[in-house]
Write a structure and sequence with these properties.
Keywords: Monooxygenase, Oxidoreductase. With about 110 residues, the chain is α+β, with helices and mostly antiparallel strands. It has helices at about 25-35, 65-70, 75-85; strands spanning about 10-15, 40-50, 55-60, 85-95. The chain has a four-stranded antiparallel β-sheet.
Length: about 110
């Protein structure tokens, strides 16, 4: 994953899922695609284990880009649906990345 030199921002979304899909996978894929089209979006990583615990980290150029994504109409509706159907709990942390390091085995 290529990211610019810091500083940039990371939104860390840690969640625990409810049982069953109920359209979650399709909507999550759509949200990832839609986020990637937003001004200031840089990249995203996402993992979920068998117990339903997931972590998604999205990277953004600045706080204004994050705020615009948060108020995007489809994202707002998806967040509402997430609270109602897909998540038992979640945490969101927004942080400024000051330094970043990478290792890749040749």
């Amino acid at each position: 994953m290529e990211l610019p030199e810091p500083p940039y921002y990371a939104v860390i979304f840690t969640s625990r899922r409810t049982d069953g899909d109920r359209g979650y996978a399709e909507r999550a894929a759509h949200m990832s695609e839609l986020a990637a089209e937003q001004p200031g979006y840089l990249a995203q990583n996402s993992v979920r284990d068998e117990s339903g615990l997931g972590i998604t980290v999205s990277y953004w150029k600045d706080e204004d880009s994050i705020a615009a994504w948060r108020t995007h109409l489809e994202h707002t509706e998806t967040r509402r649906r997430g609270r109602a159907e897909w998540y038992t709990e979640f945490d969101v942390h927004v942080t400024r990345v000051e330094r970043a390091y990478r290792f890749e085995r040749p």
